[in-house]
Amino acid sequence: MPAELAVCGFGDADFAAHLEPSLTTVHVDGAAIGARAAQMILDRCRGATVSEPVVDVGFEIVERASTGHCR
Predict the structure, then answer these.
(1) Which pLDDT belongs to residue 5?
(2) Cα separation of 52 and 49, whole Å?
(3) How much is the pTM?
């Protein structure tokens, strides 16, 4: 498959590395997203203006075999 089709998942689940071929994924920091969202909700409940309504928490591509040969 990797020679003809690239496949990429999202969330970097534990099983992705154990598939055959191993699955390339996009890793995001879910805990950071949740903490930031909770803080924004609390700020709004307190009447504060959300200074940054859009926050880039970043991501990482975890390259594995499912996209390794498609370049």
Answers:
(1) 85
(2) 9
(3) 0.74
